[in-house]
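Q: Structure for this?
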Amino acid sequence: MPPVNRNKPVRAASSESEYTLMDFMREFPDDATCLEHLWRTRFAPDGEHARCPKCVETRVFKRYETTQQRQSWTCTACGHHLHPLAGTIFAKSSTSLHLWFYAMYLMTSTRCGISAKQLERELGVTYKTAWRMAYLIRNKLMTQGTEPMDSGNPVEIDEMYMGGRRRGTPRGRPGPDSHKTPVLGIVQRAGRVAAMTVPNVKRATLFPNIRQYVLPKSTVYTDELAVYNTLDRGRKGYHHRRVNHSEGVYVSGDVHTNTMEGFWSLTKRGIGGVYHAVSKKHLQGYLNEYAWRYNERLNPRAKFSTLLRRAVR
Ligand SMILES: [Zn+2]
């Protein structure tokens, strides 16, 4: 066997990881590299020339050493400052950019989620800071797309109550005083998922969401909940098939909602096991996070790189 360079670990061909911690540390070894990345991506591709909004021209910018360690570059013609962090989720944060990037790395590489408590330990920041970082990453960077799903593969639609219904227990809506939050899920087989909290599971609430994501003429699979009864009517012309969960039928040929159930089960296990209790107010953020990771499985780019691109756009 050839000698191994232990300072340059090579990822095993069998590893499922597309971007390891070692890759991350090579690309972003310190805070300055992270700042430079933002500067080049947002303003100055060559690191030196950027468009000065005051001169209204491309100028040479320099980063002057100051006592306050200002995170800005200065126009050498007029003295105007450009701040690469302005308008990003990193602005007005006293946490090191390197730690922000590392938090993003952790949230993209986990499968089941990472709690604020664990982020606190990993990053060495306060719980409050860790919680806020995860909150912003989930709600600003991992937001779900609004564009419709491709035509072609069948779409499964299923609703659930967070902390509510399990397979085999009687269905139906929890009473009005319930703390359970209804959630609507739409998934295309071998495609994207969209998961959203909804105020209720009435037709008037669910259908606009379904119409937004599901193209006309698509084949749609649901369970037997009455609210879906009219899905095959109307201009959209959906081909609608149902499985009778209440009669214990979960699969009938191609007709099932197992893809959606699989996503729910991962999400419920994750939220239950990692985050414990999630309030109605914050549930959408967690759904974003799970949907984001699920949808990114289709993307050959490393998840971390995709998230970073969202952070600097
Ligand atoms: Zn200028």
